[in-house]
Amino acid sequence: MLASGLLLAVMGTATVWIAFADQSMPAPSHWALMLSVRLQHLGELITTALSVVPNWAAALGLVIAVSALAVRARAVAWPGAAREARQHATTEA
Q1: How confident is the model at residue 87, as a pLDDT?
Q2: How big is the CA angle at 28 (ends 44 and 20), to the nearest 5 degrees?
């Protein structure tokens, strides 16, 4: 317990030292700067375009996307599960 507290204190001190040190991060090169600018611009365009979508529609889209991913993950993890579920449903009916 003491060792983890000391390690946390050392990490915090190092973080503060790096944050206030002169030239702790070098200036980005030209391509990195241009990529950053393009990504920020693209993010602003997407945010502006999606600002007209109501919150409930965005939430519904996220639920549908997560559900589709869950179904796909289940099909990959248990390939025979869907077939067994169909067979079980037809034998009960």
Answers
A1: 75
A2: 100
